[in-house]
Amino acid sequence: MRRKEREIKDIKEFVKILSKTCVGTLSLSGGEYPYAVPVNFGFSETDGNFKVYFHCAGEGRKTELLRSDPKVCFEVHAVEKITGEGDNPCVYSCAYESVIGFGVARELKGHDEKREGLIKIMENCTGRCFEFLENQTRGVTVFEIAFSEVTGKRSRG
């Protein structure tokens, strides 16, 4: 990271940033161009190891790309405020925080794995814990990304 003073290294800070939103950007490769798509997500953290969960249809561009090349980048950011004032546009900036994780997406199989991922998604998006029955997990595709690398950045604007 070029601006070391903006780097976030504290795992607790990563958790706070990931908890601020339930939409992240999933970036995939394959095809003529890279593909970035917003997804609702949930996450877990154990001893500094992060996993992100998201669901999608069993077919379509995102699913096809994930199955053909599961290496992904996942990004979340929270904009705090725009800073600066006056008529000079060069004094304006943006206060933000971001987390970027790299890893390999794995399609979850079976009720128990899908259930775990869906519970994490709903906890992050609603703050509530839901239970999922087998007939509810059967028709949904759920992926998990175990981050092999995670970085964070903060700008005070």
Care to describe what's here?
There is one protein chain. It contains 4 helices and 8 strands, in the order E-H-E-E-E-E-H-E-E-H-H-E. With 157 residues, it is of the alpha+beta class. Strands 1, 2, 3, 4, 5, 6, 7 and 8 form an 8-stranded antiparallel β-sheet that branches. The chain starts with 6 loop residues before the first strand and ends with a strand.
Question: Secondary-structure map with pairings?
Answer:
Blueprint: E1 7-8, H1 11-19, E2 23-28, E3 35-40, E4 42-46, E5 49-56, H2 61-68, E6 71-83, E7 93-107, H3 110-126, H4 134-137, E8 141-155
Antiparallel strand pairs: 1-8, 2-3, 2-6, 4-5, 5-8, 6-7, 7-8
Jot down its keywords.
globular; 157 residues; 8 strands; eight-stranded antiparallel sheet; alpha+beta
What would you call the shape? globular
Give the proportion of residues in helices.
Answer: 10-25%
Number of strands: 8
SS summary, helix count = 4
Structural class: alpha+beta
What is the first-to-last residue Cα distance? 17 Å
Instruction: Summarize the main sheet.
Output: 8 strands, antiparallel
- The share of residues in extended strands comes to 35-45%
Order of SSEs: EHEEEEHEEHHE
Mean pLDDT: 93
Runs in which pLDDT lies below 50 for 5 or more consecutive residues are none
Task: Summarize, please.
By secondary structure, this protein is of the alpha+beta class.
